Amino acid sequence: MALPGARARAWAAAAKVTQRRLRAEGAGRSRSPKPANQRAALYVHWPYCEKRCSYCNFHKYIPRGVEEAAVRSCLVTEAQTLLRLSGVQRVESVFFGGGTPSLASPHTVATILEAVAQETHLSADCEVTLEANPTSAPGSRLLAFGAAGINRLSIGLQSLDDTELQLLGRTHSASDALQTLEEARRLFPGRVSVDLMLGLPTQQVGPWLRQLKELLCHCDDHISLYQLTLERGTALFTQVQQGALPAPDPELAAEMYQEGRAMLREAGFRQYEVSNFARNGALSIHNWTYWQCGQYLGIGPGAHGRFMPQGTGGHIREARIQTLEPDVWMKEVMLYGHGTRKRIPLGKLELLEEVVAMGLRTDMGITHQHWQQFESQLTLWDMFGASKEVGTLLEQGLLQLDHRGLRCSWEGLAVLDSLLLTLLPLLQEAWQQRVLSPVPGG
After folding, report:
1. Angle 68-86/326-336 helices, nearest 10 degrees?
2. DSSP code, position 312
3. What is the C-alpha radius of gyration for the chain, rounded to an integer number of angstroms?
4. CB–CB of 332/345 below 8 Å?
5. 31-34, Cβ contacts within 8 angstroms, sequence gap of 24 or more
6. pTM of the entire structure?
7. H or E stretch at 329
8. Which helix (H) or strand (E) holds 35?
9. For residue 15, which of 151, 178, 256, 371 is within the disulfide window of CB 3.0 to 4.6 Å?
10. Quick check: 95 and 41 in contact, CB under 8 A?
11. What SS3 state is found at 367?
């Protein structure tokens, strides 16, 4: 059943009101009184693309023809099944990713949202994001997605240089990207994010900064900066390996990142996560769930999720991975109601490692209250307070440990990977000591 127009319009109107409220309140506080194991984000994976980009090793397929009705039916079925298995009573955000989900029809988006709303509570202010490529998202199509229930867009712009876009194998030009961005901002004001890549072969700091400066003249309130990672098996990796292109210079990439984040800060953007910048409070609620180690359900071929299935007493969180190949996934969904290929119970230490590694990606870090949701006996002070190595990081101004919790400084966010090399072994050592010498009454 398609999403009724009245409900879609109500979601769109409520989203505008809620966005103003969220901007005033900021992110990081709970949006629902429901217990954590009854709340979740929902990720919907559309695995198909028009073509494979030269740098991309994500799970995607280039089909000759997609039986969209069959895929849509399986996505609905899997969403219903996993919502029931998880016992989730409130979905706090929905993210259509891929692949290129803007190649799916608005009807598919509407049908999935309606099925979720019938299965659990999906509020009118729920953030519903669609990833879109400029060539698959003209204004009329974006308008239809808005009517289907989408209220936030993430546009894969990647570059404003046509030569770089060709190198990346993108199907759009810089002009296409800016036109799509203009139409998106008109239809979804304050709710449009754009991606910009750095560290490409032959890329130089000055020209890249000029791209970012130009983008600031056109963008909305959210920008993501992503450094290119050469992945084995991609066309770009092969070109570099064979000497057809120079390898990206990591020092130049680091300079681009530092100069870029400084430019964004000057323009009023808050770096609320290592790669993500927002102004006017326009943070991604969905991604915030990931960084706060909240529950999320993943549906679609190759999707990942993390939630506590019913029947475990709400104590064992599982990492779940859906079957990769779309045709096989569809057969499994039709047979079993879902296409879960792997179920991996997460131990307490594994979960705490994720809390540290993900939480420190944000400027808020890990508050004491947030830590206690996952570990009630050993505090952040117990874990890190007596460490000489942490003391050195505090003195260097890279890390902060105080009454609020543990977090990186602005300088520390840029070198988080090196900080984790110190912090994670300390966490493991403290946990091992607890195992050997249990806390009384624990």
Report:
1. 50
2. S
3. 22
4. no
5. 31/92, 31/285, 32/90, 32/92, 34/89, 34/90
6. 0.89
7. helix 326-336
8. none
9. 151
10. yes
11. strand
Task: Decide: 112 and 147 in contact? Cβ < 8 Å.
Answer: no
Span 402-440, pLDDT tens digits? 999 999 999 999 999 999 999 999 999 999 888 777 655
Residue 312 CB neighbours (<10 A): 12
What is the spatial distance between Cα 18 and Cα 24, in angstroms, rounded to a whole number?
10
Pairing of strands 270-273, 127-132: unpaired
Band of residue 392 on the pLDDT scale cut at 50, 70, 90: very high
Contact call for residues 320 and 307 (beta carbons, < 8 A): yes
Q: Give the integer Cα–Cα distance in Å for 382 and 29.
A: 24
pLDDT surpasses 70 at 252: yes
List, in order, residues 6 or more apart from 81 with CB less than 8 Å away. Answer: 337, 338
> How many CA atoms lie less than 13 Å away from 382 in the CB half-sphere?
16
Distance from the Cα of residue 236 to its chain's centroid: 24
Measured distance CA(266)–CA(161) in Å, rounded: 23
What is the spatial distance between Cα 50 and Cα 103, in angstroms, rounded to a whole number? Answer: 8
Q: What is the dihedral of CA 420, 308, 89, 40, to 10 degrees?
A: 20
Structure tokens at 23: 């901007």
DSSP state of 346: P
Answer yes or no: are the C-beta atoms of 341 and 324 closer than 8 Å: yes
